[in-house]
């Protein structure tokens, strides 16, 4: 035991990962431990006596033979023998097999211990046994040279046998990346990935077109590989826009570098911009930069005073402002300054700004050019319906996209106002609300003079009451009636539809919407997660009615067990389902 | 000498004069190649020959390799990405953008 723990410690301390060596060593050592009484009986048992089975079979002197037979008889009575025997199937128990087994155990026990001498099983060379000595094909030990050869032979066939199923994790990861699981990737994507892999060896991109730069920027951001070094590759004096989706590794100087080396910038889209400070904004103001689009995520070191100054100096040019995740600055007053100084704003997105609330909403009504509005407060911010009604009645007619997330307590009056005032909407997102009623939503989509929407996100419109999972009698949120009315209104144009967590849409409503003969020719993306009624039949109906479908997202639709999906569709979120794609069956292994 | 446009193969020619003859169906993966090659209104369609003027033989060879790779694996699932030598990837990226593949 001493030796064993010493060896284990030694291996651990040297960080040697030699499972094979350790196993061999453990096994031999354990056998040596079980042996002592026997070695006491045969104190002069020389190691070469049992160096290999072939030797055992050769003629030997009667004394040794007798001793061996004694030993075998003893083994037959031992517990080890009983165990081994039990491990084989009980099919046979005749004398010969017993003898064979006993002989095998005997040989194993008599294997030399480390430090002793033995003859190699293959080349018959004499060598010193060490803990690292390998066992040969017939159970004997091998010398160093033969061990090496043996090891090399073992290494040759490492080809892992892939299970007949597909790995769920890898499969789902690919699906979420938008890769359908058949065919090759486009050459473009393959190359972009390769470029991203070798980004640190690249000195210059040459004249890559902006669209590719954008895609590369996205992939590098996702890999968190945008650093001061790689930033240089994106700085093009002649380009007017920069999009970097992860600036977390850039320093304050890098922002200066961006602004200084791209003086013609009109579009600044930077995310995770923690180190951005007042001086960057001051630089923009000093140079009177022609920025029209300012999209910043998390510039928390910029002060309120500086924000206001920026809007006063440059606000008249701004066409779009998108801000995310500001917690220490940007309050209602700053927002008011923005509304006042940026009269030409066409797009406004404010998400997760900690210091603003209902009070700033009325300012939005004054933006007479606004076409795209997207708002989301923090979830603890109290929301009211009235300011939203005011926005709708004043700028509703000009809005093209509207996204109001997590206005928990906004009620049917808001729907009524959107219904009455909005005529040009193409994209509508109303999510995370537990106040709208199904009747309200049905009325909203019925007879709405707005043309069919192309992008609809109504996820999580549902009643939340743990004690009443089926919801009240009169459904709250998007349920059957609302869903049918929605598809009646927008089915012809809708491309993107998300009704995840709208749990009260019934089986019948799905059946009605995806009935035979109904076609939603443009629908590419459909998310019906947590609509637990959807089963294999409904899934097939969906595929039949949506010829252009590319993604169907079905998290927690546990009744989807066995579906046949068209080639171009990525089905995301199934658990243990059997998926057939054009005759190729994939069974998920979990 | 004009070849019949319905030949089963087309020729892709590199800037430095290397010619690669590949099955027509593989070339049609690329919109940029398909449109001229499939119409007799273009000289490419009449000759069955497309000259990639901006790319060298090494790149065009890789492009043709991809076109065939794509054709070969189009019905298979979980296809690994084709191996691209790092030193070619930027130029190949430009080519891929041009070919719209």
UniProtKB/TrEMBL annotation, chain A:
SMART domains: LRR_CC. Residues 21-31 have a biased composition (Basic and acidic residues). Residues 114-151 form the DNA repair protein rhp7 treble clef domain. Coiled coil: none annotated. Residues 1-94 are annotated as: Disordered. InterPro entries: Leu-rich_rpt_Cys-con_subtyp, LRR_dom_sf, Znf_Tbcl_Rhp7. It holds the Pfam family zf_Tbcl_Rhp7. One of its GO terms (cellular component) is SCF ubiquitin ligase complex. Residues 11-20 have a biased composition (Polar residues). GO terms for biological process: SCF-dependent proteasomal ubiquitin-dependent protein catabolic process. PANTHER family: PARTNER OF PAIRED, ISOFORM B-RELATED (PTHR13318), RNI-LIKE PROTEIN (PTHR13318:SF234). This is DNA repair protein rhp7 treble clef domain-containing protein. The lineage of its organism: Eukaryota, Fungi, Dikarya, Ascomycota, Pezizomycotina.
UniProtKB/TrEMBL annotation, chain B:
It comes from the Eukaryota. GO terms for biological process: ubiquitin-dependent protein catabolic process. InterPro entries: ELC1, SKP1-like, SKP1/BTB/POZ_sf. Gene3D superfamilies: Potassium Channel Kv1.1, Chain A. One of its GO terms (cellular component) is nucleus. Keywords: Nucleus. It is found in: Nucleus. Essential component of the SCF (SKP1-CUL1-F-box protein) E3 ubiquitin ligase complexes, which mediate the ubiquitination and subsequent proteasomal degradation of target proteins. Controls sulfur metabolite repression, probably by mediating the inactivation or degradation of the metR transcription factor. Belongs to the SKP1 family. Component of the SCF (SKP1-CUL1-F-box protein) E3 ubiquitin ligase complexes. This is E3 ubiquitin ligase complex SCF subunit sconC. It comes from Penicillium freii.
